[in-house]
């Protein structure tokens, strides 16, 4: 069984630690994990800007790179959503390779939760004694179903919380608005920068008001935007990708 | 070509909306152990209230709620408080000074504190709105669970108007502050009798 | 006309007011949640609503004809208007025939869409909007900023000032009850002296030929039941097949809109008052075009509850006026971009595609998918700024060449950390206005991985 590791383009360049944490989480479970070095961007920024036609070559590259793996795992809810939900226009309906890729791609925590299952996860060798606020990034939350959206009348569930709560000494903190968008939204963060900033600041204040020490989530793009604000404003709030907490990042 | 033909033609042309079967609502919808309790709770949240009494005590209860109101209309057989006959007026505008309207409700709906008013004998439907205050009288046995049950009781084959009334009129248009009494009655009660 | 980002930037600049507006609407969203979570079969109701609407749109011509037959049999006169101008002409003709000087009007987004008020006023007819929120914005000469809560953008002091100026209330008295009572007295006079009343239509029932109007204030009924002439204006998509289908929509509408179980009044008009006349105007105004478009046809299923606006984090922080369209927020953006794409090209981008709107929509309209699709259509039609398109083409070029991407990343990680901050944070760096750039690491993951694998292989070789 072979896992193909899909690292979002910007995480590869800017967040190697979180990317490596994802890799190690999988190898620690004794999986044979390979990072196809020819991989590139999933095309989300272009698609969200209206240029989804330009994504055709990227989509084909993606499927060619990853079709040989039993699972594809990525530390990004939004990139996984891009592949699962928005690649259909680039392939025939009965394209075997795309259909295989579409049904075997997971966000890392989703993979741990759905495939490995919480009862089989062992975090006993790490400890994270901190108040942690979980940011539910929109694509992972609503499109991948990582958690039950507050809008819907469905039973409460959070795959991210289910896995995080297994980490010894962690304290998951309840926020005021559990799944409001942070305002990153891809190019939105610069085309509507005033609103983007306002939304990001409100998310940060929600964590601060709940005495969160560490903010985490499954999408580095959201965290990058929030951390950018935190850094500029000197706010006392650390930001870590969920894979780093699960691997046992020392604070 | 009339606009009617133009519009219908446009609709028919290139309509790609898929077919779908209409649902049925038998045995569907929330039900309550105590329908009166649910009704009362809901109507209280919208500025009204529900009271349970007997036919004999009806006027006593109404007077205890409204003892200063002068011009009163009643189309409820069990009440003798009416002193103004709305049905005798040709012009609906002449109802403008009515202080209290006591009207018959066909049935109440527990899920939302609403009562269905449809009285073919009531000449002016504006009575329900133009009166300053309203009391709706319903039989205790006429409380339904939900709107699916309600619509099973409704037909317009021989009438031209009906309204669900839930509480007095209200608005929250000024900074979201709830104010009871907008353009319809400024207070209202539902009285259940046996 | 300004773009959404331009308007939004101004709105956000008043931080206190922006947060007040955001909190007010979030509160409405929370009330909606409470109501929705109190009905165990809520998600099933949404499915039913979506199904009923799909069924109806598939047979829209059939149901409109059935409606016309049944309404006519009840003594109602049915008119058809192909566009906004014709709608206004029909209304005017009816009013003129009865020598109407004053018209009282209850809430109708359709009449806003058709710009009915100025049309009638230019022809010497006084129009009084009787919904309190609409009356307030009418006196202030501004458009409503929300389809259900027209004055949500105003403080009570704003209202106090307006009423002081136009109704003679006490200056500085901003007590909502006091102000509402003043409006009640003033509008009561209007109801009693108007010669005609115009209402919108929440639902039109094909099976019975009647129309349903939902209000909390009772203003639609006061307007339709006192004057002898009642005109009801409806978008043709408001049709539903059977009386019993109302059970689904009356359970969903108010809960989705404001979190109440039902509006104070749900009036079913099936004929005029004694000695009166009732007219219904069925309006197309580009609605038929939606039926032919798979990507956007579900926009017709809207029951105008406003839930999508309340939940939209961008709407809450930018206000309805920043959309410059009669209907704002998510549903407004998709309708606007469909009808006038070039004019409203910034609206599908006033969105992070968070998906919350789709989840609160009682009719399960695929709002976020529609906004995503509009972006593709706008780009293809050439309605997006050339600079944006160019930067996307450059990005795609680089991304299609992994080695080039690696090189660009390598150079960035070598150079950027050494650049002075004044050079990095310049006026072209929009990100940098309010955010720091992330720290650029020494090595990319790929470099670390490649080295790690090489070390492993070297170790194995030993």
Key attributes of the depicted protein:
heterotrimer; A: 251 residues; alpha/beta; Rossmann fold; 4-stranded parallel sheet; 13 helices; 8 strands; 46% helix; globular; C: 462 residues; 3 domains; 6-stranded parallel sheet; 4-stranded mixed sheet; 21 helices; 10% strand; elongated
Overall description:
- The complex is a heterotrimer of chains A (251), B (194) and C (462).
- Chain A has 251 residues and is of the alpha/beta class.
- Chain A is built from 13 helices and eight strands.
- Chain A has two domains: 115 residues; 124 residues, 3-Layer(aba) Sandwich (Rossmann fold), CATH 3.40.50.
- In chain A, strands 2-1-3-4 form a four-stranded parallel sheet, sandwiched between helices.
- In chain A, α11 crosses α12.
- The longest helix of chain A is centred in the C-terminal third of the chain and has 17 residues.
- The two termini of chain A are 34 Å apart.
- The model of chain A has no long low-confidence stretch (mean pLDDT 96).
- The mean pLDDT of chain B is 96.
- In chain B, the strands form three sheets. Chain B has a five-stranded parallel sheet with strand order 1-11-6-3-2. In chain B, strands 7-4-5-8 form a four-stranded mixed sheet.
- Chain B is built from five helices and eleven strands; from the N terminus they run ααβαββββαββαββββ.
- Chain B has 194 residues and is an alpha/beta fold.
- Chain B has one domain: NagB/RpiA/CoA transferase-like (Rossmann fold, 3-Layer(aba) Sandwich), CATH 3.40.50.10420.
- Chain C has 462 residues and is an alpha/beta fold.
- Helix content of chain C is 51%, strand content 10%.
- In chain C, a hairpin with a 4-residue loop joins β5 and β6.
- In chain C, α3 packs across α12 and α15 runs parallel beside α17.
- The N and C termini of chain C lie far apart (72 Å).
- The interface between B and C is large, with 76 and 93 residues.
- β8 of chain B pairs antiparallel with β9 of chain C.
